[in-house]
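re: ur question from earlier - yeah i can do the single chain one, its not a big deal. heres the input i used so u can compare w yours
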Amino acid sequence: MPSQAHSIRLLAAALTAGPLDDSAALVERAKPLVGDLKKARWLSSLAKKLSREFGVAPRPTRRQVADRIAAHPPFIKAWMVGQGRVVAGFVEPTMAPAEGAPRSWQVPQIATLEALAGELGLHPDDLGWLTAYGAAEHYRHCWHEKKSGGVRLIEMPKGLLKHAQRRVLRQILDAVPPHEAARGFRRGSSVRDFVEPHTGKHIVVRFDLEDFFPSITATRMLRVFLTAGYPEPVARALTRLTTHAVPAAVVREKVLEWGARRRLATPHLPQGAPTSPALANLCAFRLDCRLAGLAKAAGANYTRYADDLLFSGGEEFARQVKRFVVTAGAVILEEGFHPNHRKTRVMRQGQKQHAAGIILNERPNLDRREFDRFKAILTNCVRHGPQSQNRERHADFAAHLLGKLSWVGFLHPAKEKKLRAIYERIAWGE
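and the output i got, formated as tokens:
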């Protein structure tokens, strides 16, 4: 005879196999496991309780439902008199998207792990191998020095995992829209869309989020896939495909503060995986909602590009900016992110307002010092040859310079035309 804990787990698995918004459907779903409904009178009240709590919420985990069953007095009372027994049984899992916007997401219907493997073009054994934490190392690791100091770990998935992640990106994540304020890592949007709402403003406030990707945990991603309607086994497999815990030996290669080490060693969003930018936007949806509402209440604009957050407004916003900075910082912390206070900037119209390397005072424009430095590099390439200026040893220095020219043209076509005239005079054959 199964124990009470085992019976609760069996019942929770059956109840979470489909939507929880209809108490009558929940009773029917659990009927094969409880047998005689006359003896399981507690089931009806439990179903009503679950449908009230989870009917319009994102799909709950089995553990959440198991906790509610274990705390349901009619079930406990029935168990004590021998009327709460649950037998093993199988309930066919189905999709169960949350109420509201998620029902319009055109995500593929995937109810089983076998169907997930087929959707991703994997053998079921390969899916199991890729989703088993610690079974094998599916990432390459590379430390990069930051210009501002410190280091950043790039986690690059190996071939088979990268193939699976790209399928997840194209077939699932591209169908889920991020918040309107998220301007990075989305089709049809660019860094110009990020900064343009903040040009010519009386005051601009910039926040930076510390360890943006590593601070997004597997738990957050599980919620995204559950909200989309995937059964828990499928949602957990998708979460494991898109998260990574860095091996201890790699973490020890650099001297890091305790919080950074813990974030890397915990399953998190890997910076370097093709799915990470889109998932970062989705996991920051609540953050964007709260900050957009806060900005609107203060008479300000708000946009976000990855870990860069911008707010701007007029004199009304300027009068309350000190209180706003404190409140916004508290919201960021409450949502599980970490503001880098050393990089928080309050920039008024009388000083240089800038973000993402772009000047915002009148219109999106180039930083004058960066423009002059790039012009000097091109001029020296003409005078002394391009190799004399390739100090960072780019494999294709010409392509590197063309990329910088394109960036100048993106913001200021007239300046790009002048610089391109200099570029055309470079003697590459010498």
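The radius of gyration is 27 Å. not sure if urs matches, ping me
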